[in-house]
Amino acid sequence: MKIKSLVLFLLVLALASFAVAQSLTPAGPVEKVSFEPLNTVSVNPAHPARLRLVFHVKPGFHINSNKPLTPELIPTVMHFSLPDDLVVGRVQYPAGQMKSFPFDPTEKLSVYSGDIIITGRLIAPPHAGTGTYTVHGDFRYQACDNNACYPPKTLPIVFNVKVGAHSRSGPRAHGNSQSPHIHN
User: Fold this and answer.
1) Rounded distance between C-alpha atoms, residue 112 and residue 179, angstroms
2) Domains of the chain: residue spans and CATH
3) Exposed, middle or buried, 124 (CB in 10 Å: 0-12/13-18/19+)?
4) How far apart, in whole angstroms, are the C-alpha atoms of residue 149 and residue 29?
5) Among 13-27, 107-121, 129-143, 152-166, which is the least confidently predicted range?
6) DSSP, res 60
7) SS3 state of residue 164
8) Is 9 helix (H, G, I), strand (E, B) or coil?
9) Are 125 and 154 in contact (CB under 8 A)?
10) Distance (Å, rounded) from C-alpha 44 to C-alpha 125?
11) Pick from 87, 97, 93: nearest CA to 139
12) DSSP class of residue 182?
């Protein structure tokens, strides 16, 4: 009888420990990369605005750079779904960090870790209507730790862009006769 009571006590203790552990861990898988939300980006037609996207790779993980050294590795890429009145140009990825890992200390890989900043130019063409637009994007990456690589993931991002009125001063007012000024 004492053995049954001891086994039952240990079973209840194990289940209680499991329940406490489950309540302390977040629901679902732990994301290895996060996006730092943007404030609304403002742009005027024919006057590009700087776009700066910041991603954070969790400590203990790395992702392949935009230009991995071998074709077997999945590059990190950013894709945008834009309204007709917006264009993203000159997208630039940071250079990868050359690192070796315990699984093959003789080979270096081009990776990102920590903070990643992707830049670009946000352009509203001269015919763009004023107002606020929502931009959707997909940040595709493959995360790895020192022992394994995980399946590729796509992190959706969303931010707003406010398109202002076309500037009345225009390029000619600044002495640039190369760029025509268009009034709507």
Assistant:
1) 39
2) 30-166 (2.60.40.1250)
3) buried
4) 15
5) 13-27
6) T
7) coil
8) helix
9) no
10) 9
11) 93
12) -
Residue pair 62/143 in contact by the 8 Å Cβ criterion: yes
Distance CA 134, CA 159 (A): 6
**For residue 153, pLDDT beyond 90:** yes
What's the length of the chain?
184
At residue 181, the pLDDT reads 34
**Residues 33, 109: Cα–Cα separation, whole Å:** 19
Q: What is the pTM of this model?
A: 0.72
Query: How many angstroms separate the CA atoms of 36 and 21, rounded?
Result: 29
d(CA 117, CA 114): 10
Q: Cα–Cα distance between 158 and 142 in angstroms, integer?
A: 20
Amino acid identity of 16? A
* Distance spanning both ends of the chain, measured CA to CA: 91
Residue 75 sits at the vertex; the CA angle it makes with 157 and 33, to the nearest 5 degrees, is 40
CA distance 174 to 176: 6
**143 Cβ neighbours under 8 A, 6+ residues apart:** 32, 33, 57, 61, 62, 63, 149, 150, 153
Tokens at residue 33, please? Answer: 């990369």
